[in-house]
Specification:
The chain is an alpha/beta fold. Helix content is 53%, strand content 8%. The strands form two sheets. A five-stranded mixed beta sheet has the order 1-3-2-4-5, sandwiched between helices. The protein binds iron/sulfur cluster (2 copies).
Amino acid sequence: MVNINELQGMLDLCSRCGNCQQICPLYAEVKQETAVARGKLHLISLLVGDEINPSSRLQQILDFCLLCGRCSSLCQNGVPSDTLIVLGRALVNQSIPKFKHKLIRYMLRKERMKYSFHGLYFTRKMRIDMPLQWVGKMKPYWPYYNLITSNLKKRPLTESLPKVTEISQSKKQKVGYFIGCMNNFISQSVGQSTYSIITKLGFEVVIPDQKCCGMPAWTNGDLKLAEELVQLYVYTFNNSNVDLIVTDCASCGHSLKHLPEFFLKEEGRQFQTKVMDISEFLCNYLEPSFLRSYEGAISYHDPCHLRYGQKVIDQPRNVLRLIPELELRELNDPGCCGFAGTFITSYLETTQKFGMQRAKAIIDSGVKKVITSCPACQLQLDKNLKDLENSVEVLNLVEFVDRLMK
Ligand code: SF4
Ligand code: SF4
């Protein structure tokens, strides 16, 4: 599955300058070369050259990465370090499969995602999962498990939204909405707001049957499954004849804008030209006259997969600046919230530390609301602010905009 020649070519782009040390949040934490892109890429080069063998230690080193994309987006040689780290994981994981990889593969294939969420929903409803909070290994993860399962809904949002919403005599483009698993099963108010805004702006909306964006499979180095899922959504949305594909999840958008080209080359490249984060869409079509004013200061938290993965930085801020009287107050730095997909399952302490740092930065800014564009960041910030007994409200950009639309 991994093309070794292509991989070697990309690894050779690294000049070992070490500049990525200055921007890697994990290197700042542990000050070890194995934490930063340069060190990881060196080890992957040795692996590709058969100078070292796959090992649990190497697996652990490659897993210790947020895949935040800071190193890739700021590298002057254009080294796609986060992609290379995923390919390194793929090489190691095929020799040393872990239970986590098998579980993710099992859950994401066929219709199992939906039934896994159903299973979790009923487990929570009937309270049969409560003893887990006292079980040794599960105990530290309980607050996160509890947070996710207590927000789970019985049915996916796609079952209550129309598959096609036609607007009479609309001359506007037809928008395909990629909802993503988190907003479909957990943070449904985000999906409802996105749907509501797009239709209020007079666009036809199509919501085809959809599965996972492939990001969890990709970050676990399961390239086969990631490719299957990418092929599926490209096929589904191409068949829906939409002009644009909009998503409100930073990680789904990162997948939709990068993985099709990686797996499907030209066909994928063409698909990607239609994909937009909802903030890019709103920058083009929302106007101040559609919005009521908001008196007060708010901050914006950048999800890494949006800021570094898609270089979408100004657009959400520009959407917020459309709101009359609103004061946008920048946080002290664009830090990672630490949730980082399945990173949390191996490095919970780091996740907790980053989440806490982020919550304190928000409190220090003195705002009453913080806006973000990623359902996982939203859960993490909300949890940490509540842990600090703070009442700052955490909202997705679309929830905030939808509240203020006339
Ligand atoms: S990944 Fe880029 S920034 Fe890091 S050492 Fe290599 S060339 Fe330098
Ligand atoms: S992706 Fe982020 S955490 Fe991983 S090496 Fe690059 S900067 Fe560090």
